[in-house]
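Handout for the seminar on molecular recognition.
Each group receives one record of this type.
Step one: identify the two inputs.
Step two: read the structure output and locate the region that could contact 2-OXO-4-methylpentanoic acid.
Step three: write two sentences on what you found, then compare them with the reference statements printed after the record.
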Amino acid sequence: MEIVFNQVKDSRRSATDMTNIPFGRVFTDHMFEMDFRDGQWLQPRICPVDAIPIHPANLTLHYGQSIFEGMKASKNSEGIPLLFRPEAHAHRLNASASRMCMPNIEVEDFVEACRQMVIIEKDWIPEQEGSALYLRPFMFATDEFLGVAPSETYKFIILTLPVAPYYSKPVKLYASTKYIRAAQGGVGEAKTAGNYAASLFASKQARAKGFDQVLWLDGKEFKYAQEVGTMNIFFVIGDVVITPPTDGAILKGITRDCFLHILNQKGYKVEERPISMEEVVTANDEGRLQEVFGSGTAAVAVDVCQIGYRDTLIELQPAADSLAQQLKTEINGMRTGQIPDTFGWVEPAFAVENA
Ligand code: COI
């Protein structure tokens, strides 16, 4: 893939406080951009981050044909930028695209676009513990047409942002028995904008009750835990680590997948199976609920300190060396090259002689 470059004259990097980065608000200088028309992706380019003109009849604004990814890059001790599982993100983007009737992107083109963004923005990769360069690849419909039909034109953009972890402390979850995020047959598995919009109302109510996020339950019986929306969920009961299976209504988290691989490699008893809130409450009552944590690219691994469910409030005291914290150390270590990556997840953006 031949990318056209239009570099900024004056970088904003030196004027940016990299020690205090709010998640999602600080953007690097450049973005990758590519348009889809007449059945093909056109000239890819890397250009200064700028507003994009949108026609008021843009299909995305009306019918929500929009998908995204969240991915991280870090630097190793030699200053080489490392991408983390870019192919897995390409495959997931394409799965979301297919579900939303949008065009796929060649995996190698997606990876090359990410690689070039990470190279051009390497000075923006934060080096503080737990921080990273967050890549936000996204695609949306650009047809100007007020009809419910798949768009014939699309735009694909990659923004990059220096970020600290999404959550800075353990989270309190409210298991909603009134609202759902996704149901079987819906688009819960796709990383599509509407799933996040659909979560806002219940999240606002959960916050009003003193919680941070909603723990979504299944859309049929409000019985089984699904995910948190910003994260997948894990429960440690006795010596077994349990996470709900990705059955179509749950996002196939890449961090979730990493944790399953790491836990299996370390010999933990791991179960991917439906887990009901009754089982969680009973385990807590019997003193067997060791910990609960969320996993996600932005969140990495976050301890859960409270779960509100019907009339029950489960309170947990996350330990400093909780499994979540151990997994976080492990994955952050792999991302920065400090812990050997035996899974082949880490990809240097360029060879050491080009550093
Ligand atoms: C991510 O973890 O990358 C996500 O897309 C979640 C989002 C709420 C930041």
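Reference statements: The chain is about 25% helix and 30% strand. The helical segments are 59-63, 86-99, 107-120, 193-208, 254-265, 277-285, 323-335.
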